[in-house]
Amino acid sequence: MKNKQQQQQQAASPTSIQKLFNAQMHLHNLVSYFLIFCSGLALGLTLSFYLKDFPFNLQLNQFLSPTSPPVLISLKTKNLTRVGLKEYLKPPDVMHDMEDKELLWRASMVPRIRELPFNRTPKVAFMFLTKGAITLAPLWELFFKGHEGLYSIYVHPNPSFNGTVPQDSVFHGRRIPTERRLLANALLDISNQRFILLSESCIPLFNFPTIYKYLMGSKKSFVEAYDLPGPVGQGRYDHKMAPTIKLEQWRKGSQWFEMDRVK
Question: Which residues of 118-154 are buried (b: 16+ CB within 10 A; e: fewer)?
């Protein structure tokens, strides 16, 4: 009987040990899961405080916005359009809102680098200083016909002149309000290389190609100045100009000229 009880105790002993071992493993797993949960909770709280001011929603909306592709396409297209010197080289309008000081300052600008970074077709600037209408305008129309792009026209009539110019005329829209702005406006066009000051009584003696070729091939400017005895020449000398300008230095000069752009 005693042996039978011992055998029953020995048979039950492994079962008890196994149950105890399973209980310990279960407890160990619970502790491990609890620690992992606590670690995840702590990490989540930390990240939430760190990222609470980060504009995540804004970036997400920008990324998911359906208007993003057109914006990118338009920017790409815009970047392919090169402006360069286009606006600077474009001939300015004759009528603008620049004041005299602004205009003269702009016209006095001279490039320090002589070699141009672009192809330029030099033009002749015809500046008409008139008392009224250009009476020989039909002759000038024939002179300029067919040579567009090789000349520029600027006209300053007497301020009292109120005449109109036909819209199909080369002189239409080329009026300059003041005499001092005549040459300054011509200098604004970087393509103008030669400058001629004319009156309403001047006429061309040769055709346009001949005059254009001669002026562009010349290295001289044409300014009339000479010593003229008598009241018209030396008689206009004012002794108050001495000693800066002496009588032997005084010259009579014509207001009409042809000059080259400063290089």
Answer: eeeeebbbbbbbbeeebeebeebeebbeeeeebbbbb
What are the respective helix, strand and coil percentages of the chain, to the nearest 5? 45, 15, 40
Tell me if 199 sits within 8 A of 129, measured CB to CB.
Answer: yes
List the one residue out of 214, 207, 223 whose CA is nearest residue 259.
Answer: 223
Would the pTM count as exceeding 0.85? Answer: no
Residues 6+ apart with CB under 8 A from 197: 127, 129, 182, 183, 255, 256, 257, 258
At 127, which amino acid appears?
Answer: M
Quick: pLDDT tens for 174-218: 999 888 899 999 999 999 999 999 999 999 999 999 999 999 999
Partnered with residue 42 across adjacent β-strands are none
**Residue 262 token pair:** 């400063």
Cα separation values, 173 from 25, 167, 170, 181, 196, Å: 101, 8, 8, 15, 19
d(CA 198, CA 191): 20
On whether the CB atoms of residues 258 and 215 are closer than 8 A, the answer is yes
- Nearest CA to 195 out of 177, 218, 175, 168 is that of 218
State how far the alpha carbon of 46 is from the alpha carbons of 11, 41, 50, 59, in Å.
54, 9, 6, 22
How do residues 230-248 score in pLDDT, each as one tens digit?
888 889 899 999 999 999 8
CA–CA separation, 156 and 103 (whole Å):
16
- Tokens 């009579």, residue? 252
